[in-house]
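PROTEIN DESIGN WORKSHEET
SECTION A - STRUCTURE
LENGTH: 413
TOKENS:
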């Protein structure tokens, strides 16, 4: 019988998320037995209707014990209590002395649910800062706090700590989000020595220097949990409460479950931030670049065009993206054959590049524009050419000067 109960604990079976409480109810929904652990946790309900446990006046909708008595097999469902705690209830029908009853296990799975929800939240974004408030709200379901932050070691190795993200239930704070402060005298420094969670029961008796800072803000107790990535502590998840002794070592159970993914998320966010910063710098460079830079696939589609294409051709980048043949149609017919032949040997690999290819195009306003173009093939990991990167310089003014020089030379001779 007990093995049947364990088998029907489902996804939470064998986990460390709390204890399973056991009771027996008869067909009239009256509790006949509760194990000592049940009574210690909830008090005695023997002789009372089973639904009184849920603080209800009538039987639960979709009563799992009723279903079990009808189906004559174990039934399970989740139930949310008035205080917001979530329980997994499993009911196993048994016949005792000719009378059918149900053996019920009631398991508090609130932390397990919060843990699973947080993992889904973390996985939903490349930037932990965008979903941090949602994580904070989930953790608040199981841990009471007035302040929560993530601190990370400075990547430059300068012995400083950054308050990476922060939520708080009060206004003034010295350790704001984005603030850098010395590693020395911080909870993170202590974590790096102990490699274990740090509890500060009362900041009136400070453990580290930052306890004194947060005491001025009304924070009386603190709890810090290490974030470890590839064997190295990279930061910590921190809680602060205005109540002394607010945190317990048991809180570490849930944090131990989510901390590895949080640490990965922090590293991903840092990488994402670096890539974004690089993209911004690259975009600024491209936007201010006077020459035309573009990437074009073999079938003719453009995957990148610098904004300078508008100045050089008169057409916006979006027009070239929408109509891949637009650029070809601008080339003078007298030059089109030369351009096609020159690029063909680059596409088939016969030539490593095309340099100083000069040709004319018609500007949208009708004037002639001379271009000098360099093109280079881009290969995939297997060596196949997938696109060209090209740089085109406007040589129109240079050509006019050359023409003037030629005319002058003719006049002299």
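SECTION B - SEQUENCE
RESIDUE ASSIGNMENT:
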């Amino acid at each position: 019988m007990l093995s049947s109960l364990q088998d029907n604990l489902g996804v939470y079976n064998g986990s460390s998320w709390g204890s399973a409480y056991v009771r027996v109810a008869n067909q009239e929904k009256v509790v006949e037995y509760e194990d000592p652990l049940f009574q210690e946790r909830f008090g005695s309900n023997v002789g009372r209707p089973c639904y009184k446990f849920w603080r209800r006046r009538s039987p639960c909708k979709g009563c799992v014990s009723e279903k079990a008595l009808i189906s004559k097999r174990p039934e399970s469902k989740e139930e949310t209590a008035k205080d917001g705690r979530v329980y997994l209830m499993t009911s196993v029908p048994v016949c005792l002395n000719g009378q059918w009853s149900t053996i019920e296990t009631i398991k508090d799975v609130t932390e397990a649910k919060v843990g699973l929800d947080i993992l889904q939240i973390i996985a939903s974004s490349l930037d932990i800062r965008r979903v941090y408030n949602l994580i904070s709200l989930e953790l608040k379901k199981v841990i009471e706090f007035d302040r929560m932050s993530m601190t990370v070691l400075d990547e430059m190795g300068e012995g400083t700590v950054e308050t990476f993200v922060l939520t708080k239930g009060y206004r003034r704070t010295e350790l704001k989000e984005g603030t850098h402060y010395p590693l020395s005298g911080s909870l993170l420094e202590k974590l790096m020595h102990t490699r274990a969670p740090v509890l500060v029961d009362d900041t009136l008796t400070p453990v580290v220097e930052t306890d004194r800072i947060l005491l001025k803000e009304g924070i009386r107790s603190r709890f810090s949990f290490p974030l470890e990535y590839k064997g190295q502590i990279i930061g910590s998840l921190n809680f602060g409460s205005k109540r002394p002794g607010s945190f317990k070592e048991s809180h570490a159970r849930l944090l131990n479950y989510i901390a590895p993914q949080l640490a990965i998320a922090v590293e991903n966010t840092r990488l994402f931030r670096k890539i974004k910063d690089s993209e911004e710098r690259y975009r600024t460079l491209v936007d201010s670049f006077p020459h035309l830079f573009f990437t074009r696939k073999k079938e003719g589609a453009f995957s990148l065009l610098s904004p300078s294409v508008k100045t050089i051709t008169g057409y916006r980048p979006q027009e070239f993206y929408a109509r891949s043949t637009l650029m070809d149609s601008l080339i003078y017919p007298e030059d089109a054959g030369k351009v096609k032949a020159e690029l063909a040997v680059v596409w088939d690999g016969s030539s490593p590049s095309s340099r100083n290819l000069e040709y004319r195009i018609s500007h949208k306003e009708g004037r002639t524009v001379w271009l000098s173009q360099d093109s280079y093939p881009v290969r995939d990991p297997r060596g196949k050419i997938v696109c060209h990167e090209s740089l085109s310089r406007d040589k129109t003014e240079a050509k006019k000067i050359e023409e003037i020089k030629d005319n002058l030379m003719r006049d002299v001779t």
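SECTION C - NOTES
Residues 1-16 have pLDDT under 50 and may be disordered.
The chain has 13 helices and 16 strands.
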